[in-house]
Amino acid sequence: MPLTLYQLKPAFQSLLRPLVARLARRGVTANVVTTVALLGSATLGTLLALYPGRTALFLLLPVWMLVRMGLNAIDGMLAREFGQQSALGAYLNELADVVSDAALMLPFVFVPPLGWASVGAVIFLATVSEMAGALGPMVGAPRRYDGPMGKSDRAFAFGALALAVGLLDGLPGWAFWLMPAIGFAIFINTINRVRNGVRAARRVTPCTDAIHSAPTHSDAAQS
Fold it and tell me: How many helices (H) and strands (E) are present in the chain, helices listed first?
């Protein structure tokens, strides 16, 4: 698997495990945590899109990216380690991730030298990438998180961009080429997810048994 920040997930989960246990004891559910992450992302994305000229607001984005990464890890751990897996949780987890990613990337449309074409293409490619990963269980493979430029990597990249916007009051002209580079990396990860998913499915016999036994709640962490 190409190098990706997702490979740091086990260590991150170990740090969060005591907090997750306390949340479980207090009755907090995985679906609630997923919903909080979605609402927070949508709110911040809307704020930045409405006021793109207030570049200092972009400094909130890297902070939220870190918080959201923690929330994504927490919801997966609650589902997997505390018996909260559900069909609704699986749908909510995958859809919330895609919507949250789009909401947090969309404000960069209004930051020169970026624009609708470049940022829109990255949002589209990121959506296709996550679909390719989520389709793994349908063919008898695990959910795929192959890189480069998976969800966690995109969070880091856009968090760094937001930090630059906030500190520099904008982006230099050469930053235009960052979107094509990010988009190309996402395209490569989509190919990797499909190819490795097909390989994994071929090792499962029969394929239908793996489909019926697929987990009902993804343990993705933002990526």
Answer: 8, 0
Exposed/middle/buried for residue 42 (C-beta within 10 Å: 0-12, 13-18, 19+): middle
pTM (two decimals): 0.84
* CB-based contact 166:55 (threshold 8 Å): yes
Can you give the length of the chain in residues?
A: 223
Per the CB < 8 A criterion, the answer to whether 18 and 73 are in contact is no
Distance, C-alpha 14 to centroid of its chain: 19
pLDDT tens column, 36-79: 999 999 999 999 999 999 999 999 999 999 999 999 999 999 99
Distance CA 184, CA 89 (A): 31
**SS3 per-residue string spanning 60-96:** HHHHHHHHHHHHHHHHHHHHHHCCCCCHHHHHHHHHH
162 CB-contact burial (10 Å; exposed 0-12 / middle 13-18 / buried 19+): buried
Helix (H, G, I), strand (E, B) or coil at 166: helix
